[in-house]
Write a structure and sequence with these properties.
Helix content is 31%, strand content 17%. With 354 residues, the chain is an alpha/beta fold. Strand 4, helix 1 and strand 5 form a beta-alpha-beta unit.
Length: 354
């Protein structure tokens, strides 16, 4: 048995942005089977939607857009002004009066099923294939969408976009992956992820995942690593030009980030990419694809030149590398739409259904 429960997030009277208020909901599926054979009796996916579905003469929804967050994120990051106020308003690229925008919390994140709900390290060891399979169930069974106008993904969501394109090649009109690679998570990219995981596990307070209080020393080390991975060198040098400025930034930001994390959830989130590798099957992607990375991205360094090589295997793929400035946000540029929304408009125009 499956069900969808929907409720309003914000009353219109207190919603200031110039687009329809998000509505949150929960979709639950029974006996969800993971790719390694594990299963959950119930898997819950939390989500939000913005806008309303439009239907054709057959009753099929024609205007759905799926937007996928990064590791450790949630749907709420896409309501930040640098994203939503550039994209969702009247006349903007994803005008929410035209599009039905679907924002899921992925497995292990936000309000969706995750280790901290009670299973701790006994929670199934989900991977990206499992996460995309759950997204597909939410979209099709939960929301009744059989085709997507666009899949847009940032970071982990970027990688999920490639999985979608290979697994369900006819399900979308267009794909826009932001800030990722299409090869196995290896080299420095795997090393810093392993460092995050090991920092937590090596804290005695972690207690094999059965802690009563969060292992704050391990989480603090993890946050330091994550700060470097998400850094923006030119911007940070401009904003924190002295030793005291830099020290103050660290002192004021680390502890709040530590308090916002759960140790087991974090371990699962950063290990879920362990077997990601869409490279061998890129030819399966049929939809027009617009891939964007930036030169100041520590996680996806331009020196690897992986996208330039890999995009040649995508029939209708394009790759653009944004140049760093003292305004770009490193890896996080993926949610600052002012830097790349012209490419989104181009993709939407190129993929307009006939």
């Amino acid at each position: 048995m499956k069900y969808v429960a929907v409720f309003c997030l914000l009353a219109l009277c207190c919603f200031a942005a110039d687009y329809p208020a998000p509505k949150e909901g929960d979709y639950t599926t029974k006996n969800f089977k993971f790719h390694d054979g594990e299963f959950l009796p119930e898997l819950r996916l939390h989500y939000a939607t913005i806008g309303a579905p439009h239907r054709d003469a057959r009753g099929q929804i024609t205007n759905a857009v799926l937007i996928l967050h990064g590791t450790g994120g949630s749907w709420k990051q896409f309501t930040q002004p640098q994203f939503a106020n550039e994209l969702f308003g009247p006349g903007q690229p994803l005008d929410a009066t035209r599009y039905y925008i679907i924002l899921p919390d992925n497995v292990g994140h936000g309000g969706s099923s995750k280790p901290s709900n009670g299973l701790h390290m006994r929670f199934p060891q989900y991977d990206y294939d499992d996460m995309v399979a759950a997204q597909h169930l939410l979209v099709t069974e939960g929301l009744g969408v059989q085709h997507l106008r666009l899949i847009f993904g940032t970071s982990m969501g970027c990688m999920h976009s490639f999985v979608w394109g290979e697994t369900y090649p006819d399900f979308m009109d267009a794909l826009m992956p932001m800030a990722c690679q299409t090869v196995e998570i290896a080299g420095r990219n795997r090393m810093w992820r392993k460092a995050v995981i090991d920092s937590i596990k090596l804290d005695p307070a972690w207690n094999s995942g059965e802690y009563k209080d969060e292992p704050v020393n391990g989480l603090r080390s993890a946050v330091y690593i994550l700060a470097i991975a998400g850094s923006a060198p030119l911007l940070w040098q401009r904003l924190y030009p002295t030793r005291d400025d830099a020290n103050k930034f660290v002192e004021e930001t680390v502890e709040p980030r530590v308090k916002a994390l759960d140790a087991n959830d974090t371990i699962y989130q950063f290990d879920s990419s362990r077997n990601y590798n869409p490279s061998p099957d890129l030819e399966k992607i049929r939809a027009p694809l617009m891939w964007i990375n930036t030169t100041d991205d520590f996680i996806n360094p331009p020196e690897l030149t992986t996208p330039e090589r890999e995009v040649k295997h995508i029939a209708r793929g394009q790759f653009h590398l944004l140049q760093a400035t003292d305004q770009t946000r490193g890896h996080g540029t993926h949610t600052w739409a002012v830097f790349w929304k012209q490419y989104l408009l181009q993709l939407l125009q190129q993929s307009e259904p006939k």
